[in-house]
Amino acid sequence: MSNLDNPVMGRPIVDEGRSLAIIGGADSLKGGRLGQEIDAHGEVVRFNEIVGSKLVPEETGSRTTVHVMNTLVAPLDDPAILEVDLETNAPWSSYCKRMHTRAILANDARSTLMIRPSAYCVMAGIRAADWTRGFLFYWFIGRLFNGPVDLYGFSGNGHYHNDLEITEKWVQFEHLFYRVNNITRH
């Protein structure tokens, strides 16, 4: 299998036998005390703003090697972290905010992987905005791993330390997909 090279970290992110923890934002993280287990993975993926000071090390761990974000979230500004913009609702907005020289997130795109707007046009037929970024990240990248892939914070009925409603249309299908395919969720 060929590796997915990480131009930011200068090493492959998909490597033989390397383990992957994908940390979602569901309330199942609360009280789980899985922080050490999460941090023991070779790669640790986190989403949007559940990073840095918003982490509770005992529940969520503290390592981040890949940061997946939407159009409203700035990169973490750490050269050791691969930044991935998986905006599905407003990819043009995200593209412009990161790529235009006078934009709010200008110059942050130099180390950010993004879905090209032309690729999004093809994705529009599958209604990408109806899926969680966690599922899309797993589908595009996580399933390429030969080592163990564990999902944390991908079950429950609410968000981790956030009262906002879950709005993605296919969350229940995603949970069924993980269960049927024996993908470990915590």
From TrEMBL:
Membrane topology of the entry: Single-pass type II membrane protein
Top-rank lineage group of the source organism: Eukaryota
Main localisation: Golgi
Keyword Oxidoreductase (UniProt): no
InterPro entries named in the record: Glyco_trans_29, GT29-like_sf
Pfam families: Glyco_transf_29 (PF00777)
Keywords: Glycoprotein, Glycosyltransferase, Golgi apparatus, Membrane, Signal-anchor, Transferase, Transmembrane, Transmembrane helix
Subcellular location: Golgi apparatus membrane
Family under the similarity heading: Belongs to the glycosyltransferase 29 family.
Protein name: Amine oxidase
Organism: Prorocentrum cordatum
